[in-house]
Amino acid sequence: MASFFGEVVAESYRYFDDEDEDALEAVRGTEFSFSHVEPRSEEKLLIVTEGRLPSSYMDVCASSLKDVGSIIGRLDNKEVKFGKVLRGDSCTVVEVEQDLRLEESHPLASLIVGLVANANTNMLCLTARHIRDYRGDVEEADNGCIVRFLSTKNFQNSNNLKRLEVPNILSGLSAAILSISTVRGIPAMLLVNYVEMLHCLDSISQVGFQSIHNLEPVKACSAICQPTNLSAQLKSRRTFQDSSNLYI
Amino acid sequence: MLVFEDEIGDVAGFTVILPAVSVGNAGQLCVDVLLENIQKEKMKTFQVLHPSLVPVVAPDTLLENTSVSTALQAYVIEDSKLVIFQIRSGILPGQGSAFIADFLKWFKESGCAELVVVGSMHAHERIDKQITGTDLRYLTSLERKVPDDFVKLEHREQDLETGGEPNIPGGGISSRILRQCHQQNLAATVLIKFCSEGDNSTDGMVLAQYLNLLVPVFNKSRPKIPKSWQHLFGHSAPVQMFW
After folding, report:
1. How far apart are CA A26 and CA A7, in angstroms?
2. What contacts A117, CB < 8 A, 6 or more positions away?
3. Half-sphere exposure of B113 (CA within 13 A, CB side)
4. What ipTM score was computed for the predicted complex, to two decimals?
5. What is the mean pLDDT of residues A186-204?
6. pTM (predicted TM-score)
7. Helix, strand, coil percentages, rounded to 5, for chain A
8. Which of B2, B7, B57 to mutate to test the interface with A (most CBs of A within 10 A)?
């Protein structure tokens, strides 16, 4: 974009130019690490939430889990908290709420996948995207909820979930985790909830995540409980108070 | 380093085809055409991981099963002694050199015979003599026999001043990988099409047919359009608006 009248700007292109000067200047070499996290690897179920919406849902479902540490990003001697780690007897939840740059997805995903004990540990990534990013037909059976999945061949799927259709494509932290899991043979699933309002932490936006409770690895985890009344539980947590919004 | 999903097997003596992420994504579209026109039963697919690529996942467009496509895939066709790579995203800023270094390391260690890079170049950067005639050019790192009607990419004034290889504006990693292959004495050919960004499906088809003249990949004179392109560029413009 031009910053002043008459400035000559270079054309932007669809393809990624790895030598683009503007893109090079904006690169951040963030280093990620865990802070105060117990050194135990997860053997059963590792859930990763990408973004505020799935993190909020996981806070409701996994309220009994203990906060055992944080994910810290270091850049230019400054530390920023990128997420938190919650632990229970049979699962670990990593919540990442900060927006990530393209070059940060893979290093952070590598750090998180490092929590996996062995190739029997199931990984579940939850993410949300805006409905405008979805390419496909919305059927009546969807009940206003567009939830799709992608998984590795060795993940124990539920038949109730619909697979993400061509030509949809996903990037970001969840995509990086699924890519690493695919190559390393770790059973993993990515569940994406397409919503109309990404930043509204209400029950309408989060109801799509309830599909996870049909998955065998989640059913086997007693610490993850399906909320009986999602809207009431969200209301009690007062998570949707937004000072910039008069109505919510 | 390149991390493969499974053991890729012995690919010594194979020809490797790699698309350059370049203007109009013509190289990647070319590889889509190649993959669509090779019999699926003859291909083995491998997901490949490299930290220099933008991580993406999507449903597999070629194999209608539960496979997941990642940012980089390798397709091995043993009958034709080919390894075809497809890049489904792009190379992260500043990481082109790391990708090239790791890729060429794998190429050398595997004992592959030749690397063919397909890509494109900005049409608006053409010199006068490139404006007419064919839009297709080639460059090689070492001496290689090419069909008679292949045209070598001409040097531009800026290239003559620096005394180096012809520059390929908008060509992504094409010129850098060629330079590295030249320095390391590896056989590489770069095929380029001049194009501008837009509906580049035709550019992909033409580039695939050009590549097929150099390295026979498919037997059809008119290659099939990939099914994955059905939502890519939208419908053609309605004729009624010109009435």
Report:
1. 20
2. A41, A42, A43
3. 11
4. 0.90
5. 89
6. 0.90
7. 30, 25, 45
8. B57
Q: Distance (Å) from the C-alpha of residue B203 to the closest C-alpha of chain A?
A: 15
Contact between B61 and A107 using a beta-carbon 8 Å cutoff: no
Residues A71 and A84: beta-carbon distance below 8 Å: yes
User: Rounded to whole angstroms, how far apart are CA atoms A207 and A234?
Assistant: 11
Q: How many CB atoms lie within 10 A of CB A43?
A: 15
pLDDT at B152 over 80: yes
Chain B residues with CB within 8 Å of chain A CB:
3-5, 21-25, 47-49, 51, 54-59, 61, 66-68, 70-71, 88-96, 170, 172-173, 197, 227-228, 230-232
Encoded tokens for A53: 């919406």
- Cβ within 8 Å of B, A 89-128: 102-103, 105-107, 109-110
Split at pLDDT 50, 70, 90, the class of A11 is low
Take residue B84 and report the two structure tokens written for it: 């075809």
Closest listed residue to residue B75, CA positions, set B174, B22, B151, B9: B9
What pLDDT sits at residue B232? 74
- Of B59, B90, B231, nearest to A163 by CB-CB distance is B59
pLDDT in tens, A111-147: 999 999 888 899 999 999 999 899 887 765 566 679 9
In chain A, the residue whose alpha carbon lies closest to the alpha carbon of B198 is A14
CA distances from A56 to A209, A237, A240, A245 (A): 11, 10, 10, 19
Tell me which chain B residue has its CA closest to the CA of residue A110.
B51
Task: Decide if B58 contacts A166 (C-beta within 8 A).
Answer: yes
Task: Identify the residue whose tokens are 């792009």.
Answer: B90
Decide: A137 and A202 in contact? Cβ < 8 Å.
no
* Cα–Cα dist B138/A240, whole Å: 59
In this structure, are strands A78-87 and A91-96 parallel, antiparallel, or unpaired?
Answer: antiparallel
- Note whether A175 contacts B: Cβ–Cβ < 8 A: yes
**Across the A/B interface, how many CB contacts are shorter than 8 Å?**
127
Q: Which of A12, A14, A18, A164 to mutate to test the interface with B (most CBs of B within 10 A)?
A: A18
Contact B73, B62 (CB under 8 A): no
Q: What is the torsional sign of CA B203, B206, B209, B214?
A: negative
Question: If we measure between CA atoms, which residue out of A154, A124, A77, A132 comes closest to residue A218?
Answer: A124
- Per-residue model confidence as pLDDT tens digits over B73-90: 999 999 999 999 999 999
